[in-house]
Amino acid sequence: LPTIALLQSLLCGLAAPALAQDTPTARPGADWFAKAGREVRSKHYRILSDLDPDETKLYAAHMDLMYEEYARRLAGIPQQAPEIPFVLMFKRESDYLGVLRNRYGVNATGSGGMFFASPAGAALAFFVEDLPRTRIFHVIQHEGFHQYAFSRFAGTLPPWVNECRAEFFGEAVVVDGRV
To answer: Which residues contact 124 (CB under 8 A, 6 or more apart)?
Structure first.
């Protein structure tokens, strides 16, 4: 009988980690929403972020500036899709990859950020871990255009035009608060 109890405890001990990996809280990024807390608003965006508040405000202000530039340059093009753009700001790449994969079904491997539209939702998402701020701004500007274009063209913009315009905005420089 002691041998059976020992075997059971060993088997349960071996089985427990495998079961834990299947629970939602054990998946990469699953606890990110708790870390991010409440959604905040900028002038044009709904934002969920686990960055410190000052860093979140910095990126939100930059996104608002760029949104106004997209709107100025594309004035007269009516909105086609519902919009208050949603943004996910991640401190760590692993949370970014985990949340996009597990919550939205998006494989973001190899990217620093992206705009995605999936059956589970749509958002501009990016992470800041170990990336220079100039790179993060480029991602925000490029992917932000994709998000803006999606609301105006509802997925009908030819991919080459969408990428060309996104890269145009991605390479833009802000000087004295102007693009």
So the answer is: 63, 85, 86, 87, 88, 113, 114, 115, 140, 143, 144, 146, 147
